[in-house]
Amino acid sequence: MIEMKVAGIALDAMTRSPIVLLKDGTDRRALPIYIGQDQAKAIMGALEQQKPPRPLTHDLMVNFFTAWGITLEKIIIHSLQDNTFYAVLCLSQGELKKELDCRPSDAIAIALRTNAAIWVMEEVIADASIPVDRDADEEERKAFRDFVSNLSPEELIKKAKFNPENG
């Protein structure tokens, strides 16, 4: 799993549909997820730390969690099937832990309100992410090729062996 942050909300140039854009910690990969207008407003409200005069649905959920001593540990966007993303809320209440199925847009809106981590399975990122910094990706590939090309098979085996001091 890879932890990601909300980079913002964008509009698809063709359809004008909102997209929530997640980025990894290195800002090298972005994961665009199409969402509805209401979810975009909820995410934007959380990003801008807006406090509505009355609780909206995501605020109500957070209030419910607080009232019942429930903690949102993290959200996980765990799969992509037929162009639909799937997520879970990872909740805890004392020793009890539960995962609840949730739309990613709702999970993100709640995570932003609770400062919970947003995690995405690597398979989802591999299937649906877009490169952000192609130059850095190419530099990393070149550095790796240079490193490997200068190693003999014996050196490569020696470096690959487990060393408790190096973890």
Describe this structure in words.
This protein has 167 residues and is an alpha+beta fold. The chain has one domain (2-133): Roll (Bifunctional nuclease domain). Helix content is 38%, strand content 34%. It has an 8-stranded mixed sheet with strand order 6-5-4-7-1-2-3-8. The two termini are 20 Å apart. The model has no long low-confidence stretch (mean pLDDT 87).
Q: What's this, in brief?
A:
One of its GO terms (molecular function) is nuclease activity. With 167 residues, this protein is α+β, with helices and mostly antiparallel strands. 38% of the residues lie in helices and 34% in strands.
Draw up the topology in text.
Elements: E1 2-11, E2 18-24, E3 29-34, H1 37-47, H2 57-67, E4 71-81, E5 84-93, E6 96-102, H3 104-114, E7 117-120, H4 122-128, E8 130-131, H5 134-149, H6 153-160
Parallel strand pairs: 4-7
Antiparallel strand pairs: 1-2, 1-7, 2-3, 3-8, 4-5, 5-6
Number of strands: 8
Query: What best-fitting shape do the alpha-carbon axes yield?
Result: globular
CATH C-level: Alpha Beta
Which CATH-level-2 architecture?
Roll
Helix and strand composition category: alpha+beta
Gyration radius over CA: 20 Å
Taken in chain order, the helices and strands follow as EEEHHEEEHEHEHH
CATH superfamily label: Bifunctional nuclease domain
The N- and C-terminal alpha carbons lie at a distance of: 20 Å
Overall pLDDT: 87
CATH topology: Bifunctional nuclease domain
